[in-house]
Amino acid sequence: MKFFERFIAQKKSVQEISPTENITSPNDNLEEPVERDLMEKTIKKILSLSGGEISSARLIQFESGDSAVFKPYSKYSEEEADLRIARERASYLVSRFLGFNFVPPTVIRAIRQETGSLQEFIENAPTAEEVDYDRIDQHELAKLWAFDEIILNHDRHPGNYLVKNNKIYAIDHGHAFFATDNPPRQPLFIPGIPKETQKTILEFSKDTKKQNDLRTALQKLFDEEVADFFIKRILYFANLLIENNNA
Amino acid sequence: MEYVELYKLNNDGTQNTIAVCRLNESGIVTCEGAEILIKNLERNGIKNYSATDEQKLFFKDGLRFLEQLKFNFNSGYLNASDVKTN
Question: The pTM is what?
Answer without folding.
Answer: 0.89
